[in-house]
Amino acid sequence: MYVYMLINSIRTVLYIGVTNDLARRFHEHSDTLGQRNKFTGRYQANLLVYFELCADPTQAIACEKELKGWSRAKKES
Fold first, then answer.
1. Residues 6+ apart with CB under 8 A from 40
2. φ and ψ at 28, to 5 degrees?
3. CATH number at residue 72
């Protein structure tokens, strides 16, 4: 399982998620660009800036929650 973070090109939007297939999920996000009903499409968050491999889904979800709890400054560093 992977935890990952996407940003848009002007660094105003962050998206954090969990997946078991990082390449597939990134492709799915890329396919939504311009689609107003999808978060990553609406805000064009299509740059992968961070990912972490986790041992299992429970660990991945815990890591995702931790990342989402970080301050904006910490996420950007």
1. 6, 15, 29, 32, 33, 46
2. -60, -40
3. 3.40.1440
Domain containing 8 equals 2-76
Per residue of the chain (77 residues), give pLDDT as tens. 999 999 999 999 999 999 999 999 998 988 877 788 788 888 989 899 999 999 999 999 999 999 999 999 998 88
H helix runs in 1-77, sequence order: 22-31, 39-42, 57-69, 72-76
Measured distance CA(19)–CA(35) in Å, rounded: 21
